Amino acid sequence: MGTSPAKAVLSQDAIVAHGYGLTACSDVMVNFIDETHRVGKLPLGLPDTGLEFWFEGEPERGDDGSLVGPLAITMPPGQTGYWRTDQDSDRFVPHPTLADRKVYCVGDIVRLMPDGEFRPVGRSDNQIKLRGHRIELEEIKTVARGAPGVDLAGVAPVRNLEGNVERLVLHVSPRDDLSVDPDSVSRHLAQSLPTAMCPSAVIVSPRLTMTETDKIDRLRLAEFDRQIREKDKTAPQAASADD
Q1: Range in 1-10, 63-72, 111-120, 194-203 the model is least confident about
Q2: Spatial CA neighbour of 154 closest among 205, 213, 195
Q3: Which of 110, 141, 188, 229 sits most deeply, having the most CB atoms within 10 A of its CB?
């Protein structure tokens, strides 16, 4: 899901070529050649001949005729699962017509254009829906790290009992010995993001919990946010003037 190199790095006659493939399969499945040095995410391009691409579930249809949804790809014969892992049932699903083939659920959200070109949208595990809006959590995190004093940032979606996202909470840690003002971070986000993407709260912590692969542990952030809300519910409430 790559991003185009900066124009200043390349000569005017440079051509950018890249291929999209899977860790679970060594083949390059989609190719794209860019001669314009466009800015932003490069299209994935057109799939190689004979490959089967699927959407997990029913894709969304855009006004431009495109289809958006999680990508799945039919695996070559004999490739039916991971080596020594318990994730097969989540990632490898039966092919609808071929008993000896599996369909691999990639985890990437893509847009299929009317001309057959695939374009990247984001990762399904980094994307949520909030009040009908499709939101990329990584985009919020990237913008938050541009706020004064912010070093690391992570977004925790808060879900209701039905599993639907009700709001977003942003957790940030300060850079070096700097202090971070939550209100200042909120204003910074409001200047750069649509209202639907702005978190309802900003929490500043001395440090954010990381996973073994040096990524922010969003599960721990969500649990931390739940504990804060439970503490607020049990805290003594001030009596009103009418009591």
Answers
A1: 1-10
A2: 205
A3: 110
